[in-house]
Structure formats: C-alpha cells, structure tokens
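Task: encode each sequence below as structure tokens.

Item 1
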Amino acid sequence: MAEMLTDLLQNIYKRIAQLGASIQQLNDSLNQLNKNIEEKISNLTNKLEEFSNEINLTQTKHIDAVKEIGAETTRELKIIQDGLGLDALKNLIKKLEDFSNLSEGILNQDTVNLLLSEAIDSVKILKESLKEEEVVE
C-alpha cells in the first residue's frame, strides 16, 4: 500500500514537473512573441517617422520650387514687357511646361491641382498665340 502511494506521489510530482516545464516553455514563447511585437512596433514607428520627415521635406522642396518658378516667371514677364519679344516668350513657355510636367507627377493636393490646371491652360493659350504670330509672320 505504501508503495502504491509512493508511486502515485511520484507520478503526481512527474506530472507537476512536466506541467511546470510546459508552463516555462509557454512563458519563454510569450516573452519571445512580446519581444518580436515590440521590435515590429519599433520598426513601424521608425518607418512612420522617416515617412513623415520625407513628406515634410518634399513639401518644403516643392513650395520652394513653386516660389522660385513664380519669381522666374515674373522676371521673364518683365523681360517680355521690355520688348525682347518671342525668344523670351518661348523661354517662358518652356519653363511653364517644365513646371507643369514636374507638378503633374509630384504634387497631388487639390489646391495645387487647381493651380496646375490654370498654369497648363495659360501655356496652351501662349502656345496658340505663338503659333498665330508665326503664321502671321
């Protein structure tokens, strides 16, 4: 009887030890999973921060480019007003076309699209004017 009780207790202890080992393995797995999740979240946070910085930098560059193009366009219009004629006008049209091509591919904001549409219409009108002048000459 005592031997049966001893065997029973040993089996219980073995099962408790196995359960403890299984719990430890589960704990290790959970710790590894938590570590992986933390790494993924950290990587995602870093990527989002990089993306945000890239967006801010890109916006700043495009705003500067638009300002520079606006200033250049104003200078070109003054040259035209001063009477240098078709060469300056063709140069202005080329710069406006370059600007419209650049803007169409990169800038997507509604207000910028509206400005681009107006700029493209202006380029077309200027081109038609040039064609009419060339035909007249």
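Item 2
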Amino acid sequence: MRDDSASYYDSQEFTELLASYENMLSDGSTVYFDSLDIANIAEYYTISGEPEKSDAAIEYGLNLHPSDPDILIAKAGNLLQRGRKDEATVIAESIDDPENQELLYLKGVIAIASDDPDTADAWFTQAVELSDNDPGMFNDIIVKFMDNRYFDLCQKWLDMALVLSPDSRNFIELQADLFFDTGQADSAIEWYNHLLDEFAYDTYYWEQLGRIYYEKNDFPQAKECFEFIEAIDPDNSSAHMMKAGCLFSMEQWDEAYKIYRSLLDDDRNSYTLLYYCGRCMYEQANYDDALFYLTKSHEMLLLDPDVPQELYTELFYVIASSHYKNGNPAQARTYLYEGLAIDPDDQDLQELARQILPDEEAKLFTTTNKN
C-alpha cells in the first residue's frame, strides 16, 4: 500500500504556511499562528520523518495556545508513534472536548495500540459521525485497520466507504490493496485492472499486478507487467530487478544475467546481485565466472550480520558445486562442509555430499541415516 496522505500538505496554502513558520525560525522572530496551523505543521513534520521538528512546533504552539486541544492531540499522536501509549492516553483523557472528531479518532488509534480493535471501531464510528462522513476520515480509519492487520474491520469500513463514494479512486485502490494483502489474488487482479483501465500509466498498479502473477508462478505474465513499468519509467531499478527474477524463474539465464549485470554496475557491492550473476553463470556451466561472482558475494555477505542462514546455505551449495564441476574437489569439500554446518538437513547439500564424498563419509550427512 502506498502513502497518499499528502494532498493538503502539497497545497499552495500549506506551502506558504510552512515557509512562514520556517522563516520565523531562521530569523529568530516570533510570529502568531493559530492552533490548527501549528497542529498541521507538526503533523507534516511527523509524516516527513522529522519528529524533533514536530516536537518543536508543538512546544511553540503550546506557548501560544496553552492546553489547546488540536495541539495536544498532535502531541499525543507523536507520543503514540514512539510507543509511549500511556502518556498519549493521559493527554487524550485530559482533553474535555467530546465533540472533537480528531480526539475521538485519536482514542481509536490508542485502542488499536492496546490491541482492542472493537473499542477502536466504536471510537472511529463516533468520529465519522461528527465528521459528516468525511472521506479523509474514512481513509485514515481504513489505513489504520489495514496497517494493523485487522482485515475484517478494514473490509467493513471499505464497504461503507464504497457505498458513499463508489467511484473514488482512493477507496477502489484500498480495496485492491486489501485483496492483495489477504491473498485474494483473483479479486486483486480484477480491481487493479479496473484501475488500470483509467490510469494506465500508474506504475504502482502494474507493480502490484506483477507481484501477484509472480506469486502465482505465472512468470511470463509477471514479466509483461514489469515491462510496462520499464516503458513508463525506464530508470525504475525495481522493475528491472523483478523482470530479471521472472527471467531467472523461466530459466532464461543469459537474459536474466544481462539485467543483473547491468544493475550491478550501479551497486557493485550488492551480495544479492553478485549471487544472481553467479547463479546465471553456474546454470550456463560457466564455472570460472560463476565462482568469481559467488566468491565476491560471500565476501559481501560476511559484512552484513542480518543475512538469513538460508542464503548462506544456497551460496555454499552453488560454490561447492561449481568447484566440483570445475575439477577442484578440495575446495568443493570445504564449502560443502560449511553449508552442512549451517543446515545438515539441506537436501541439495546432502545430494552433493553423496556425489563428492566417500560413501562412508557421505552417509554421516544423509538424513535417512541419522538417529
């Protein structure tokens, strides 16, 4: 799901407001802003990933408007984002403004943080009623439920939103995203295609479709989707990478290699790209070049403490096999042992052990012979 929360923050009105606030900070003057403007500035900094600036705006606002509900709500929202739920709750409960829709929405978000979706649903219902069914409020509620994987409630609110605004691109997209997130592939395909009928140059929809087809192992269809993205945005490296993945899965090794190698020019230390270049060479029986890339990939992997063990296992298997096929049995055994030390039950490594080790030694690594 992509973030479409910009709207107001992209407007000329807000751009001028923010410029006025930042000019005030730069020249050290004091300028009056109303409370809602300060709350919007604080929220803008929050969604822009600048929490310290958001905090500073809130403190400035509270100096101008002590105990103002809008600014206190923004402050509680910041605390909640940092996991300080109890402090946010104290602020929310201190605000005596029962007709404030943003306060009711905040209480719903606090309920979600407390793993109480039904209470959140009740607060959100009150907030929407006060907002006169504001589409923006519906959007925020749907996204909150979706982000926290309360998919049934997300669908409930989407159903209501689509009744109110059946032609809303935003709600149609959220429905497609919900189908995507819940694994309802055929429905997701239908809804993304519906969006593409009108917005054929939106690369997000093509990417989502490509990912669905990839997961369905329909690699030719997935490849076509990523080629549409390339036509729209020739510099889209993600589309290049996914297209290469389709070619790789279709065993079109040379075509996949060309893309991986091109991407490697811009990211020479990517162990993932090095690995796939090596795999493509390996599958084409070019073991010297395979070992060049795979050994380099291993060197890069060692610099990343978060690499999953499965990737090491795959890498050691291909390196060991490349050495064996290249007539280097000693090196093959070294990498084989390293792989088996990580996962002695790996079927590919066990099969390779049966090929290159003496029978009695190979039996030690065969699952059927373990106690």
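Check on item 2: The mean pLDDT is 93. Residues 245 and 256 are 7 Å apart (CA to CA).
End of task.
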